[in-house]
Amino acid sequence: MRHGKKFNHLGRKTAHRGAMLSNMACSLIEHKRISTTIAKAKALRVYVEPILTKSKDDTTHNRRTTFSYLKSKEAVTELFRTIAPKIADRPGGYTRIIRTGYRLGDNAEMCLIELVDFNEVYTAGEKKTTTRRSRRGGSTAKKADAAPVAEVAEEAVVVEEVKAEEVAPATETPAENNEKTDETSTEESEEK
């Protein structure tokens, strides 16, 4: 009987379920996004979020504790070096589950589970900051600052034109020499 057993057993014994969740957590940490079923993703979220919370404080005890869950040195190193600094200011909710449809073989509902801070598509929209502009004096100050910049830009254009003119005659002289040699060669061939 399963009275009072609140979590999903996923059709596996305890050891098999623990090994599977550990492997999935390592894959999520290394690849930042994995594709799996909804049931496994929800179980993985419960498994991996406390590990991510522990990684915020980089101590020997926390490294050993996370290693006991993950059983992979590479995953622990990746977690504490690259992931922990990015999630340091987030109070929780480190993962996101995105439903992707149904699997062809058995019609299981599939999803992507990903680390929230490593998806540039979603985080690009969140980082926009709004600026407050005052109406007093802002426009005249901007006009005064903009005028000298325009003069400097015009001087730069004039200097570039002068340099282009200096370079242009030097490139024409070899071309004229080539034309003269072509004319002389055609004249010689006509004489023959």
Structure notes:
The chain has 6 helices and 3 strands; from the N terminus they run αβαααββαα. Helix 1 (14-31) packs across helix 2 (38-55) and helix 3 (60-70) packs across helix 4. The protein starts with 13 loop residues before the first helix and ends with a helix. The chain folds into 2 domains: 14-122, Ribosomal protein L17 (50s Ribosomal Protein L17, Chain: A, Alpha-Beta Complex); 137-186. It is mainly alpha-helical and 192 residues long. The protein has a 3-stranded antiparallel β-sheet with strand order 1-3-2.
Distance between the termini: 113 Å
Could you list the spans in which at least 5 consecutive residues all have pLDDT below 50? none
Strand neighbour order, sheet with most strands = 1-3-2
**Count of DSSP H/I helices:** 6
SSE order, one letter for each helix or strand: HEHHHEEHH
Task: Find the CATH superfamily of the largest domain.
Answer: Ribosomal protein L17
What is the structural class?
mainly alpha
Mean pLDDT: 81
- Major sheet size, sense and barrel closure: 3 strands, antiparallel
Topology:
Layout (H helix, E strand, L loop, with lengths): L13 H18 L1 E5 H18 L4 H11 L2 H15 L7 E8 L6 E7 L4 H7 L11 H54 L1
